[in-house]
Specification:
This protein has 16 helices and 13 strands. The chain is an alpha/beta fold. The strands form three sheets. It has an eight-stranded mixed sheet, with helices on both faces. Strands 7-8-9 form a three-stranded antiparallel sheet. A two-stranded antiparallel sheet has the order 10-11.
């Protein structure tokens, strides 16, 4: 019912958005002398802010200079390759399945394009996957990781950003136990919740205060018709977005007020930066209920991986089995989502991995976002990752080693989620922390 109410609100606001768009165009008409007055600029700015805060945001594009190719695909994920196959080291970026699209790592991809053969996981919006495709849970996530590693191998290097650190490490442990020839050469874990008992943040503590039934009751809703995945139970992107926004509500309110001032003052560059950020930030997707609930229970409530209690398809996930794949952990000094020590735990939990195959980097002054994007990431963290891959990876990959499943295709703009209605603020506040602990 909540999902349906949100859709109805979006439809009700559509005429008002269209009217605001027409009014904005009229107030900005360069042939009108009134367009150059401060009052007209203020009205145009008001119309734009209304339209932007009530619109549906489409799935963003990468818009990078390298051509995009789909080289692996299953119902809930596809792998995009950038550029043509080459002999440069292969690097798979496992993007978070946590509400935002893989384009959130656009800067991460760009930082490695010149030196690596870059691939990225492009996770599907659960509401766009028909029920006939079946379920997708944490076990399926691990299966997908192992299948990707095999499809892109050999000599593959993996970089997991935040949430995927757990399934990626679990997949590596299972492949080590089975002595797989497709095991990645190295794995870089960036701000991942391997053991959230260490330096717990505010977003890690909420799951400890509620049973899994609480999350199922408050966070899970069926997708309504006419969405492709209608009937599928999901953790809705609009509810998760409300949680994101409520965490820093004052900051977002100030940012929109600043944009209003920039538009009135004619500061187009600053307004453009605001649009670019929020076009990305406000584009969110749904997560399958089974994946969301299993992740909350296994990773954040019961801490099964660091306790040695995690199972995959009924088989133990034993991190002690890891002895060939080199592991690097990266953390941020000011990370308020994944506390210091949570990612480094991976190094302590792999006793049979030799010290020369382990590396750790604590980025001083960086928050969560800063350890995988931004100027500090490019200047200080990328060289550390590149050196680690060079020491443990193999750059002798050839075209024949990549088995594409599709030719070059652009990233389509999928149907975006409508905006968050005001009446969700209280519900969003209740779920604050859980989305963030899954979010990059």
């Amino acid at each position: 019912m909540l999902y349906l109410m949100r859709d109805v609100c979006d439809l009700m606001l559509m005429p008002a958005r269209m009217a605001a768009g027409v009014a904005r165009t009229a107030y900005q008409n360069p042939f009108s002398p009134f367009a150059y007055t401060s009052s007209s600029r203020a009205m145009a700015a008001s119309c734009e802010l209304f339209e932007r805060t009530t619109r549906s945001y489409a799935k963003p594009r990468f818009n990078l200079p390298a051509a995009e190719r789909v080289v692996w695909e299953k119902p809930f994920c596809r792998v995009i390759a950038f550029g043509e196959p080459s002999t440069k080291p292969k690097l798979l970026l496992v993007a978070p399945l946590s509400g935002h699209y893989a384009t959130l790592l656009r800067g991460t991809v760009s930082a490695f394009l010149d030196t690596h053969q870059v691939f990225i996981t492009d996770w599907a919006d659960a509401k766009q996957v028909p029920q006939s495709a079946g379920a997708f849970d944490l076990d399926d996530y691990i299966d997908y990781c192992m299948a990707m590693f095999e499809a892109l191998g050999p000599d593959l290097n993996v970089m997991a950003v935040c949430q995927p650190s757990v399934p990626v490490l679990a997949a590596i442990a299972r492949m080590e136990a089975e002595d797989s020839r497709w095991l990645p050469r190295s794995a870089v874990l960036v701000g991942g919740p391997i053991d959230t008992r260490r330096s717990p943040t505010a977003v890690n503590k909420l799951p400890q205060e509620h049973a899994i039934e609480w999350f199922e009751r408050h966070c899970i809703h069926p997708v309504p018709w006419p969405q492709i995945g209608h009937g599928r139970k999901v953790y809705p992107g609009f509810l998760q977005l409300a949680g994101f926004l409520s965490m820093n509500l004052d900051r977002h309110r100030t940012a929109h007020w600043d944009m209003f001032d920039h538009l009135v003052q004619g500061d187009g560059d600053s307004a453009a930066k605001h649009r670019e950020f929020y076009d990305e930030y406000l584009a969110v997707m749904d997560l399958t209920a089974e994946y969301y609930l299993q992740t909350i229970e296994s990773v954040f409530i019961e801490h099964r991986l660091p306790k040695g209690e995690m199972l995959h398809r009924g088989r133990p996930v034993d991190l002690a089995a890891i002895h060939r794949c080199a592991v690097m952990a990266i953390e941020g000094e000011k990370d308020d989502i994944t506390g210091i020590g949570q990612t480094r735990a991976a190094l302590d939990l792999t006793p049979n991995l030799s010290p020369e195959k382990k590396a750790y980097h604590l980025q001083i002054g960086a928050g969560h976002y800063g350890i995988f994007n931004g100027s500090r990431f490019r200047a200080e963290i990328v060289p550390e990752i590149s050196a680690f891959i060079a020491a443990h990876g193999n750059a002798a990959a050839s075209r024949a080693e990549i088995r594409p499943v599709a030719e070059a295709v652009p990233c389509p703009e999928e149907t975006a989620l409508p905006p968050v209605p005001a009446f969700l603020a209280e519900a969003a506040q209740a779920t604050t922390g859980v989305p963030a602990s899954l979010h990059a």
